[in-house]
Amino acid sequence: GNSREMDLQIHSILEKIRFEVPALVIADCSGSMTGEATFVARLLATVTMLKNPSDELDNLLVCFGNNAEIFTDGSTGTNRANRFVQGVSTKVNRLVDRTKPFSENYASISRFIHSDMGGTEFNSVAKKLAQWIESDQDLKASRIEQLQGYPVFIVVSDGDMNSSRSAAQSMMDFRSVMARYGWDGVCVVWDVATGNPDKNKFASVPNTMHFMGWNLAIVNQVFTKIDDLDVIDTYLPLKALYESNRYDLVKKNVV
After folding, report:
1. Is the pLDDT of residue 218 over 70?
2. By C-alpha distance, which of 128, 22, 149 is closest to 70?
3. What is the mean pLDDT of the chain?
4. Who contacts 198 (Cβ-Cβ below 8 Å, separation ≥6)?
5. Residues in Cβ contact with 86 at an 8 Å cutoff, skipping those fewer than 6 apart
6. Cα 65 to the chain's mean position, in Å?
7. CA 115 to CA 220: how far, in whole Å?
8. Would you place residue 2 in the very low, low, confident or very high pLDDT band (cuts 50, 70, 90)?
9. Rounded Cα–Cα distance for residues 180 and 202 (Å)
10. Does 202 have pLDDT greater than 60?
């Protein structure tokens, strides 16, 4: 069936992807993320967690809308046929399990990533992470250490993260809160908006990459480069390639 086809298609892409560093997925679950956007968010979250090089850092997922939620192993997710149907709550022992096929892991992550969390308040993510760290003094140090263990945050969103006067300012505010906990890594904003989003809206923000579209070829391109954090400039020619006509040749050879 479809799950078998998905496993075969994804397997060839997964084979090429090598993560040298752990990445944390922050998924936009606002109302506008229906359809393809939600599929991409689920796909990227599943791929990222399965390819995570650290077994200790493959069990965290952040979702946001009007508010943010943090999910980990043992969290309760929801199975639903579509956004209009009341879902069935299910406890998920492990968010991902490398011994299972991709489709089963995708189904597991899909219980947490829905398009039913309202607006695109990106500042809710920083608030939630800070609350999570501060809520248990016995675990505070280990949670800060865990957060610092992700040199890359991948934010999948179709909105302008409009919690500040601009998307760039929203990202700067987010980075400012994270810096208080010793995190100063790379933010990859995966912009799955339809239409023509502003390709330069994060140009002024340090250590922030901005990709647009939802072609699986981009997944492969980015993830085979993203571990090279010491040479973040490799991103710039990569993006230039993506925005040029030569990208079609790459796409034909990758997908």
Report:
1. no
2. 128
3. 76
4. 167
5. 80
6. 14
7. 25
8. low
9. 21
10. yes
Say how many residues make up the chain. Answer: 255
C-alpha distances in angstroms, 207 versus 129, 139, 235, 236, 245?
Answer: 20, 28, 10, 12, 26
Six token digits for residue 190:
């995966």
In this structure, the dihedral spanned by the alpha carbons of residues 57, 71, 178 and 24, taken in order and rounded to 10 degrees, is 40
pLDDT classification of 77: cutoffs 50, 70, 90:
low
What's the pLDDT at 197? 67
DSSP annotation of 1 reads: -
Total Cβ atoms within 10 A of residue 71: 21
Angle at 143 between CA 138 and CA 147, to 5 degrees: 165
**Would you say residue 128 has pLDDT above 70?**
yes
Name the residue among 177, 32, 196 with its Cα closest to residue 114. 32
Highest-pLDDT range among 129-143, 146-160, 218-232 = 129-143
Residue 153 forms beta bridges with which residues?
24, 187
pLDDT tens for each residue of 48-76: 888 887 777 788 899 999 999 988 876 65
Core vs surface per residue 30-55: b (16+ CB within 10 A) or e: bbbbeeebbbbbbbbbbbbbbbbeee
Q: What pLDDT does 182 receive? A: 94
Query: CA-CA distance, 155 to 62, in Å (whole number)?
Result: 9
- Of the candidates 203, 121, 115, 194, the one whose C-alpha atom is nearest the C-alpha of residue 158 is 194
Residue in the block written with tokens 């990709």: 211
